[in-house]
Specification:
The chain is mainly beta and about 950 residues long. It is built from four helices and 80 strands. The strands form 22 sheets. Strands 63, 64, 65, 66, 67, 68, 69, 70, 71, 72 and 73 form an eleven-stranded mixed β-sheet that branches. Strands 9, 10, 13, 15, 17 and 18 form a six-stranded mixed β-sheet that branches. Strands 19, 22, 24, 26 and 27 form a five-stranded mixed β-sheet that branches. The longest helix has 13 residues, at about 125-135. The chain is extended, with a radius of gyration of 46 Å. The two termini are about 80 Å apart.
Length: about 950
């Protein structure tokens, strides 16, 4: 609400109720009986005009701007429009204000009330007008800020104090800083334009504190308020000024500037050792900087601290020393080092010698000599170790002092040394194969002085290398190297071995079989592109093939289109050795959509752009309307499958992310066109997968392994799934590839038009949910292992059991990590995953310990099913007695006794011991229980 303050004898009150005269209360004598205050006071009548008419339906914007509301008839009808009796408005643009009442003030009762024998008039009409005026105008606050001196017990004006006015009421002004001022030399301040309200007034000045903030109510008036401030004990700031060579800088001018009051500054000079102390610093926040140098010789601002040489927001506390976090570091003005480098044996100049200046293990500058052996370069003034080096010569070092804005001459004579030898090797980063035809260069002073090329084994040798320090760099078109360079020192008559460089081409296709693509279009033959030797371009050394959807067959290299990489197409590649691809082709236009025609059935596609693609952000042409639709819509209309299948080294993986350089199977239910827009770029490191649990269900990965061959499929549940086919969840699986494989699939041959072999089957949550699947191998009698690696991600209420449909063997997945079997004649094994009921789970319950004579104890417990049981006694985590070891037990109550002795029959000392019970069922369920037994003397 607005500020509806009124003044009664110095007290400020609010007329939150107004009473309007009602003609219905007209008495026979012509007077209107006043209806408040309650109870009715006889003889006190209303002085409101009884014959006025007021509006009783009023709209206001916004609704809450109604300081007065009708209680009758508004409350009775619960009609919000008929409750509003007044409104107020402030124009936020020009700050103009208006107050409107839908009733005449002459109809308002003045508010008489009897106080003892006195009849008091509240003058509500006058006060409402006063309140409206007070709201529409402002107040002025004046005053002084004084410093109290406890020694002289006097008050003195305090200039440059910051006075702030903060709102406390009404709600619109709470915590709002409505005004501020800076005191003048007399400590006086004036703040104009303060709206009606209740305010907190305080003052700030570095080194002072307000005795206590003051609260004041301001309503259309000019008020005066004085504040008292007390000086707080100061602190101090200390630090050091040095140059880049760690030498002290004396008589530097250091200035501290108060952040709140920039006119408040303190300056000191650094001592001869570079240290400084700024005393009597008022409490507050300060910026500290070096502003000048009494003796000159250095550049400003300092190079440290970063970025501009100023320590900002240094906090100074009362009675404490603020230590700057690091030194000011100045760079001396530069000086020049010049000279000549010659041979010690004949005085001839040495061209290309490198002369460097080092201080505190940091090189400050260098130069190379010209044809006459001369050099010259500048460094910041100071003391340096100046060293001359040249290939084939012994280095020489001299200590010199470089004058600021001066010059020093340093000449060198270098002794000739016998040569050395450099050897090394370059190998592939992945696989470690040797990298031939790599150019190896040795650099000195930024120039190539030696070079060679690696042989077929990736080795290189450089003979007759002059002694010295060199940078070694490998290079080969289409390759990068780790590390890109190495630094070596060649010694006379010695062999220097360079650690291996590791090469990495644009792409490496690793040995084995993988599904691949390229983000470039190539015109050259793929075997030429991958440097496959001519005699190795046939199976089993090399095979490159793609799928012809229309013909339902594979096309093999060298037949087109399996003879080159084309944008958007997927290929299988089989190789017995890693094949590097080091040449870029023609990329797709990454500002335009890329279209891939799809035929009904399985299609091999690839990522056309040089970045990963989020499959769910692609589009598809709807054959019914010939218009693009979203991936989600296309899946729902059964135009395409809901995900892709990648393949690497014998394993199929379902995915919704198209990775660069990888190829994918996609199933199309109709002839259509896939549209991949550049905007489908995958923004995160991973896309929505199949193994992550979701709020609506879970997914379990089933893996099959036979030797080095692996494959996987997925089962799960979702509240949006059904027991049958679901386009959103279920996914057909491509056929196996190659002559030797292991292949796991979920045959769904009773799904009508959607019948087939699936790799993903998601069902609705149900205790009766089950999944039948098959594992196929190309060799009967082969040992195959099933695993379920993400079982720990399933909800605890889910208890899947594996059933071998050939042998009837059962395995509880939560406590059994794998199941191994031999493939039958024909190579196909059949299994089922079903849900175990809670009642059928193995549990150990009702563990009880009863005492007999001495330390005799009987441990009783209940098994919910048949199991092999172990019972151990542990002390401090170590087994001291085995009471039952792999004993077969039927469901029901079990008992075992303990005599308080260890495994050797020795009586155990008094104390607490743990009885651990472990039971394992035939299907692999594991149950555990433990209890504590106390032995006494």
């Amino acid at each position: 609400l607005p500020i509806w303050f009124i003044l009664d004898g110095g007290a400020k009150r609010t007329p939150d109720e107004l009473r309007i005269a009602d003609p219905a209360t007209l008495l026979p004598n012509g007077r209107i009986r006043r209806i408040t205050p309650s109870p009715i006071v006889p003889g006190i009548n209303s002085d409101g005009a009884w014959n006025q008419i007021w509006l009783d339906t009023v709209f206001t914007t916004p609704d809450n701007r109604a300081p007065y509301k009708y209680t009758n008839p508004g409350t009775a009808t619960n009609d919000r429009e008929r409750q509003r009796a007044g409104t107020y408005y402030e124009n936020p643009t020009n700050k103009s204000k208006i107050v409107f009442f839908s009733f005449g003030l002459e109809g308002v009762d003045s508010g008489y009330e009897a106080i003892g024998s006195v009849v008091w008039c509240n003058a509500f009409r006058n006060k409402v007008l006063h309140n409206a005026y007070a709201w529409m105008t402002h107040s002025i606050l004046r005053g002084r800020v004084l410093e109290y001196d406890p020694e002289t017990r006097t008050y003195n004006p305090l200039p440059r104090a910051f006075v702030r006015v903060t709102g406390l009421a009404p709600p619109s002004l709470v915590a709002v800083e409505v005004g501020y001022a800076i005191t003048d030399s007399a400590g006086e301040y004036t703040i104009f334009g303060i709206e009606p309200g209740i305010y907190l007034v305080d003052a700030e000045r570095p080194g002072y504190r307000t005795q206590h903030p003051e609260t004041i109510v301001l309503i259309a008036e000019q008020a005066e308020l004085n504040l008292i401030m007390l000086k707080t004990p100061p602190g101090q700031i200390t630090g050091r000024v040095i140059d880049i060579n760690n030498q002290p800088v004396r008589y530097a001018v250091i200035r501290a500037t108060n952040v709140q009051d920039p006119q408040l500054t303190i300056e000191v000079l650094s001592d001869p050792d570079g240290t400084f102390l700024i005393p009597r610093v008022p409490v507050g926040t300060w910026n500290v900087e070096v502003v000048s140098l009494a003796l000159g010789g250095y550049r400003l601002p300092p190079i440290r601290p970063q970025p501009d040489g100023v320590f900002r927001n240094v906090q100074v506390q009362s009675g404490q020393t603020a230590v700057l976090p690091e030194d000011f570091v100045l760079e001396p003005l530069p000086g020049t080092i010049r000279g000549r480098v010659t041979r010690a044996d004949n005085g001839q100049p040495i061209q290309g010698a490198r002369v460097s200046a080092v201080a505190n293990n940091v090189e400050r500058g260098f130069a190379l000599t010209d044809a006459n052996g001369n050099y010259s370069f500048q460094v910041p003034g100071g003391e340096y170790q100046v060293t001359a080096t040249a290939p084939g010569f012994a280095p020489n070092t001299q200590t010199v002092t470089v004058p600021r804005e001066g010059e020093v001459e340093v000449n060198f004579q270098l002794a000739k040394l016998p040569p050395g030898r450099v050897v090394g090797r370059v190998v592939r980063k992945f696989g470690g194969a040797p990298e031939p035809n790599v150019i190896i260069e040795l650099f000195f002073g930024g120039n190539t002085v030696y070079s060679t090329t690696t042989d077929a084994n990736g080795n290189y040798t450089l003979d007759q290398v002059e002694p010295g320090d060199y940078e070694v760099r490998p290079r080969k078109t289409g390759f990068t190297f780790e590390p890109p360079t190495r630094t070596i020192t060649v010694n006379p008559n010695q062999t220097t071995t360079v650690p291996d460089f590791k090469s990495q081409p644009l792409r490496t296709f690793f040995r084995g079989r993988s599904l691949v693509s390229a983000p470039f279009d190539y015109t050259q033959d793929v075997a030429d592109l991958l440097d496959v030797p001519p005699d190795k371009r046939r199976f089993p050394d090399f095979r490159f093939f793609t799928w012809d959807t229309a013909g339902g067959r594979y096309i093999f290299y060298p037949d087109a289109p399996a003879n080159r990489f084309a944008l958007g197409r997927g290929y299988f590649i089989e190789t017995t050795q890693d094949l590097p691809l080091a040449t870029e082709g023609t990329p797709a236009d990454e500002t335009q959509n890329f279209q891939i025609p799809l035929r009904q059935g399985w299609n091999l596609i690839g990522t056309p752009f040089r970045f990963d693609i989020d499959w769910e952000q692609t589009q598809v042409i709807d054959p019914d309307t010939n218009t693009p639709v979203s991936n989600t819509t296309a899946v729902g209309k059964q135009i395409i499958a809901n995900a892709l299948w990648g393949y690497a080294f014998g394993t199929y993986t379902a995915t919704r992310r198209m990775k660069i350089w990888e190829g994918y199977w996609v199933y199309a239910y109709k002839d259509t066109t896939l549209i991949i827009p550049p905007a489908a770029r995958a923004r995160s490191a991973t896309s929505r997968g199949f193994e992550s649990p979701t709020p609506s269900g879970w997914t379990l990965t089933l893996q099959a392994q036979a030797g080095e061959l692996t494959d996987q499929a997925y089962i799960g549940v979702s509240r949006s799934a059904s027991p049958g086919y679901d386009a959103e969840h279920d996914l057909l699986k491509p056929p196996p590839v190659g002559r030797d494989y292991v292949y796991i699939s979920l045959p769904r041959l009773n799904w009508g038009a959607q019948s087939g072999y699936y790799g993903v089957d998601v069902q609705s949550p149900s205790r009766s949910a089950s999944w039948e699947f098959t594992v196929e191998t190309t060799q009967p009698g082969r040992e195959v292992t099933l695993r379920w690696p993400n079982i720990h991600q399933l909800p605890r209420s889910v208890n899947p059991v594996l059933v071998d449909l050939q042998t009837g063997a059962r395995r509880y997945l939560r406590t059994t990590g794998s199941y191994t079997f031999r493939s039958p004649q024909g190579g196909v094994s059949r299994f089922r995953i079903e849900m175990a009921s809670s009642a059928g789970l193995l549990r150990i319950g009702n563990v009880q310990v009863t005492s007999g004579r001495g330390n005799q104890r009987t441990i009783a417990f209940t098994l919910t099913g048949d199991a092999t049981v172990e019972v151990k006694v542990l002390a401090a985590g170590k087994v001291v007695r085995q009471l039952m070891n792999s004993a077969g037990r039927s469901a029901g109550v079990q008992q075992v006794s303990w005599d308080g002795r260890d495994q050797q029959g020795v009586a155990l000392p008094p104390g607490a011991y743990t009885i651990e019970i472990r039971a394992v069922s035939e299907d692999g369920q594991v149950a555990r229980a433990a209890t504590t037994v106390i032995l006494t003397r």
